[in-house]
Amino acid sequence: MEKMWAGRFQKELDREADDFNSSIHFDSRMFRQDIQGSAAHAAMLAKQGIITEAEGAQIIEALGGILADLESGALEFDWAAEDIHMFIESVLTQRIGDVGKKLHTARSRNDQVAVDIRLYLRDETREIIGLIKELLAAVVGQAKEHATTIMPGYTHLQRAQPITFGHHLMAYCMMLIRDCGRLEDAVKRMNQNPLGSCALAGTTYETDRAETSRSLGFDGYTLNSIDGVSDRDFCLELMSAYAMIMMHLSRFSEEVILWSSWEFKFVELDDSYTTGSSIMPQKKNSDMAELVRGKTGRVYGDLVALLTTLKGLPLAYNKDMQEDKEAIFDSVDTVKKCLRIFAPMIRTMRAIPENMYAAAGKGFINATDLADYLVKKGLPFRTAYKIVGQTVARAIEENTVLDRLPLETLKEFSPLFEEDVYNEISLETCVSKRISAGGTGPESVAVQIAFVEDFLK
Ligand code: ARG
Description:
By secondary structure, this protein is mostly helical. It is 61% helix and 5% strand. Among the domains are: 95 residues, Fumarase C, Chain B, domain 1; 177 residues, Up-down Bundle (Fumarase C, Chain A, domain 2). A two-stranded antiparallel ribbon has the order 1-2. A two-stranded parallel sheet has the order 3-4. Strand 3, helix 8 and strand 4 form a beta-alpha-beta unit. Helix 10 runs antiparallel to helix 11 and helix 14 packs across helix 15. The protein is elongated, with a radius of gyration of 31 Å. The protein binds arginine.
């Protein structure tokens, strides 16, 4: 197929070079946005009298036909085309002849591709926010069910203080809500129209950039045409937000994997989200969570790849920038796939409260509360802390736990210990009395749940 730009050349492009140069294999997915951008451009050209109203209408109608045919499969992509922009323009010209050749007036592929990616990412980000919300709903559902389910809370992966499973899960909701905020912020900054920047310097035609901005749903247009065609900050901002979503899912995955192990057995994943082993008949593996954890590396890699591609690029457009798409498409696809799997995996996960409770009963998880007991009876915290440390050492020696030490033994460490100590350091008391705002107490967890439910409305 003859290249649109063949006029200047004496020889055809080498076949392998042609293939190397082509981006249609991956940018074809932006066909809707490319057509949307072209239709807006044609409408503006007609409105400004740069082409006639009839020509504008004919171009827009033909673009609509191309869109319908691509969607129905009646029109197939030509994989030999250079990119999606050239492909659609050439089909347009095949269909309506010379009028089609007027579409590219006052435009360049440089501003065309810049507008396409923004439109594409705006659509995809909306979808990703929707998927995060589905995951949030699944997590909140579990948290509500387990608002009073006691489990050990950890620091350094050592049992630290008792918490509820609901409280623990709600921590992930806070991360996911911030993730939505980051995506929304990035879209806000991205939602400026680069179309009309043309190749790099603008144009001599009397275009109306406010018009295309309005019809394409942008909040305004980019103010510097060089920046308009060379900026990919929005890709990097979104990719950093995707990387953080994956980091959150990866931490969550790690916990789900740990909790599913026989060493913990705090949860059991549904059969539909686990796999067996080809040799060990007893195995039930958390492959989905492991894959999510693994795929986090890809999304980080995509971000670093594009940062590195852009580093040192002179203004304005350079072909290097074609590398933006595979990186960001891979991130978008991976994040979406992971969120789609994660939400139902969490929704169908079964908690095993007995095992959580049993684990919370070991490991001196109520030692802080024992110290607080003495503080409330008048001892300075550091003094109480030291006494309890010695008490813990004794319990370890006697192979028992704090709440099983007889009162006489406790009194050896401090005369302030009375019969009421046992109630004060029970796991139930430890949890229900943690009434500080944001703490694990049931009222605080209810506040958190209400906050998330409000966000989801
Ligand atoms: N396929 C190209 C890309 O993805 C479109 C822009 C090409 N512009 C150019 N001047 N060669 O970046």
